[in-house]
Amino acid sequence: MAVDAKSLAFEIQAAWAAPSQPGALFEAAGRAFARLVGHRLYTATWIVPGGAEVERLHSTNEAVYPVGGRKPVTQDDYDKLTNEGGRPFLARTPAEFASFPDQAVIVGLGLGAVMNLPVFYDGRVLGTVNLLDREGVYGEHQLDGAMLLAQQLLPAFLR
Question: Is the per-residue pLDDT at 69 higher than 60?
């Protein structure tokens, strides 16, 4: 049976009313992303005011990618595409995310595909939902549904 992104978006929206935010919302979204596209690592980062760093809001692997951890925003094609342009980034192989400063860590975790999904509001990107899995798992055909789900996390990015 095919998974419907719209139905999953409504499931995430139902979590908006749950206590223990934003954790309840991130958990509901994680379940939805797992059903729609799958993931072995799921993080969410928001762009810190000033735009020089991003900070992790959620992580399914806190030992390697702890919540609250920060990293610098690199002024590169990825940043122009996703953080400035509001378009998703898709890498099917490690070579396609070779510019990531933590590429070796990602590959060391057995991950080889990346889907970074911008969350935006009021004309600007607030941050990204970052899904990672085995090499070759993600494709262009998954982006529209994944973007629909990512945008349901907007309340967790409003600060």
Answer: yes
pLDDT of residue 85: 79
What is the C-alpha separation between 3 and 138, in angstroms, rounded? 15
Domain with residue 147: its CATH number is: 3.30.450.40
Mapped onto helix, strand or coil, the DSSP state of residue 35 is: helix
Tell me which DSSP letter residue 84 carries: I
Q: What is d(CA 42, CA 46) in angstroms, rounded to the nearest whole number?
A: 14
Write the DSSP symbol of residue 38.
Answer: -
Higher per-residue confidence, 18 vs 51: 18
Average pLDDT, integer, range 53-80: 89
* Cα four-point dihedral sign 39, 82, 151, 19: positive
The whole domain housing 105 covers 5-157
Distance CA 107, CA 99 (A): 13
What pLDDT is recorded for position 101? 87
Q: What is the DSSP letter of 34?
A: H
pTM: 0.94
Q: Phi and psi (nearest 5°) for 94? A: -60, -30
Domain count, the chain: 1
Copy the structure tokens of residue 127: 């941050």
